[in-house]
Amino acid sequence: MRVLVVALGLLAFAAAPAEAATRTYSSRTIARSLADAATTEVGLRVADAGPVSKVRVFVRLDHPATSELTVSLVSPSGVSVPLIARRGTGSNLGSGAGCGGRLTGFEDDGTELAEGSSPFLDEPWAPERPFARFQGEEARGTWRLRIEDAEPGGRGTLRCWKLELSRAV
Residue-wise pLDDT tens for the chain (169 aa)? Predict the structure, then answer.
């Protein structure tokens, strides 16, 4: 009987979900010019290994019309999830100076992004497609923020971006 109790205890321990390790990676404050009517990518190198269990992204950029922009997160394996796709009637994502300002945050549990005026500060917002697409992918590698400017005539600047990854360990 004692062996059975110990065996059941070990089985329950082994079946428990893996702990998640969460870490935030940052571009730090930058002033990366966004190509007009073109695509700009800025990478963050993730050295930590393990399958991704949760993703959050934070962006601070200046642009005269967010309605011209599609901003996406691209994993090391090439899977792409749009954060915002030509939405908003204002300018900029976030406010203030670089990483020290207020960043626009995106997470799967966020509020659905309605057509409204950027800089979309007050909530964590849901991306256009779920970050759950990254679940189980290897975290290690270069993650990229892709910014596509669909219209000529307005230049922008990426001030900062952060990637928060939770990994099963």
Answer: 444 333 434 333 344 456 789 999 999 999 999 989 999 999 999 999 999 999 999 999 999 998 999 999 999 999 999 999 998 777 888 898 888 889 999 999 998 877 666 667 778 999 999 999 999 999 999 999 999 999 998 889 999 999 999 998 8
Q: Domain for residue 85, yes or no?
A: yes
> What are the structure tokens assigned to 41, written together?
């990518």
Domain of residue 90, CATH code: 2.60.120.260
Whether 105 is in a domain gets the answer yes
Locate tokens 């626009």: which residue? 104
Q: Is residue 34 within 8 Å of 145, Cβ to Cβ?
A: no
Q: Say what the pTM is.
A: 0.86
The gap from C-alpha 148 to its chain's centroid, in whole angstroms, comes to 16
Residue 76 lies in a domain: yes
Distance of alpha carbon 103 from alpha carbon 74, whole angstroms: 19
